[in-house]
């Protein structure tokens, strides 16, 4: 008999060679019908793999991310088979599951694949799926594997890099692929499949290698789920921040300036400025001090910080000067500069904490293929701050930072989030810098702050950086997509490397603890996420224009100007559309521009000294006084933007 421990802690006994599926059936037939993958002692296995030893078993359904991975990994095999049957002679390479679906990189030779071919591939996939073919793993020798892929240089290269004796194949129907395993029981579970797109991809991501065609797909256990997913994709396209950024004239890119270097247009710059001022005001109340540091620093600074050893080779290369041996780096992080600001004075424990904040622009070299709108760029501005405190102050500082992050989320309409706490791996204490005592203090501070603030949280043991534990905020946007926003990170490493000290109450020198924190992360990425979350309908306090004034004809221009002045006196951001266009056209364009309020002005309005107000995409507020309109705006703003 062997003993199998299940996730709820219960232990069940079975004859040796019991399979995960047998275990599932012994729990309940209904549950077993939904089980599609399994992990034994932390390793992904097949649901039909015989278990021969005691151990812990986790069974996954479609509702688990592990289940989805197995589902999409298996679907990639089906996609590959469909492609091979439709296009004999193509060379298959690799095809992993990804966050949403899967892809397969294929050398199609001279054939080019486009959208018109997708339907045939999908039909073929579903035809294969309906055969309910089981996925079966088997071992092969290196010689057998090389024989099977004779003429396919890609698979041959993969096999050459594998140890003989570790090579496995997966068979289903008439198809075989080189594979390490992790499949759903059979193809019949795949009820809906869609080829989403094709793109060029270099073999192994290297520009010097042949270009392949990457075929992206997704599949589901129910047709309904595919339909819903496609609707979501459609909505995501409409909200794509690159599209909205263009329509709302927020930012642009120029090939001449360089890839991944965003140019902020006046409206976008005004938006950033408002966000910055919002955070600056809150930070001021929280006791932060603003600092300013240059965009470059001596290479030596980053050698000291350790950044050069870690990222130097893959980043922008040092800038040399006419002076021999003098080298500077574009700033990849603000932290080393802030450490040197701390070092400018001698501090006593009574002076701490010091909280230095900077909207610091940093530069990181991203591969051109990785660049994406504002979410992956080569130059961006962090809403950075570094807090230097005593170990005993960590608890209070952490709580303050959490308050600030929650204030930011609340003011910007992010309501759905969880906290992710990354702690050290207690089995491997040597992996981490800093004393055990300090780590315990820091981890306790994070945990107690998280619990005290009533956050929904998950704990990731072993996910802490070598230099300290951290708390990340995972935010769900309006389309249910998850983004990591807001990081609070404890650091024992940089204070050591920069020899930061303070004088304690014992008159001895001690090391301060450093906290890195950025509620937005970067202005660029945050604005991209905010655009996609709100579809450009930002909270009213943040909108570039809160009201647009549209006159029915030129006759009422003067009155329009008067209304504008009155609104501006009330600190409402308004504009007059002076163009000689029909009112219908002006309204349509104001809708497109997402102006929250439209003020329509004609004869009646002028006579009664009132305005007619229409809300974006919604209600007609009718003819009201300017004072009442101001009140409406103020009330709406005060609902989202509270004082910190
Ligand atoms: Zn596989
Ligand atoms: Zn930092």
From TrEMBL:
Keywords associated with the record: Aminoacyl-tRNA synthetase, ATP-binding, Cytoplasm, Ligase, Metal-binding, Nucleotide-binding, Protein biosynthesis, RNA-binding, tRNA-binding, Zinc
Coiled coil: none
Major subcellular site: cytoplasm
Cofactor(s) it depends on: Zn(2+)
Enzyme class, first EC level, given as a word: ligase
Domain TGS: 1-61
Reactions this protein catalyses: tRNA(Thr) + L-threonine + ATP = L-threonyl-tRNA(Thr) + AMP + diphosphate + H(+)
Entry's EC annotation: 6.1.1.3
Classification via Pfam families: HGTP_anticodon (PF03129), TGS (PF02824), tRNA-synt_2b (PF00587), tRNA_SAD (PF07973)
Compartments where found: Cytoplasm
A GO molecular-function descriptor: threonine-tRNA ligase activity
Binding note for cofactor: Binds 1 zinc ion per subunit.
Aminoacyl-transfer RNA synthetases class-II family profile domain mapped to chain residues: 240-539
SUPFAM superfamilies in UniProt: Class II aaRS ABD-related, Class II aaRS and biotin synthetases, TGS-like, ThrRS/AlaRS common domain
Binding site residues for Zn(2+): 335, 386, 516
InterPro entries: aa-tRNA-synt_IIb (IPR002314), aa-tRNA-synth_II (IPR006195), aa-tRNA-synth_II/BPL/LPL (IPR045864), Anticodon-bd (IPR004154), Anticodon-bd_dom_sf (IPR036621), Beta-grasp_dom_sf (IPR012675), TGS (IPR004095), TGS-like (IPR012676)
Gene3D superfamilies hit by this protein: 3.10.20.30, 3.30.54.20, Anticodon-binding domain (3.40.50.800), Bira Bifunctional Protein, Domain 2 (3.30.930.10), Threonyl-trna Synthetase, Chain A, domain 2 (3.30.980.10)
HAMAP family for this protein: Thr_tRNA_synth (MF_00184)
Assembly behavior: Homodimer.
Family, as annotated: Belongs to the class-II aminoacyl-tRNA synthetase family.
Protein name: Threonine--tRNA ligase
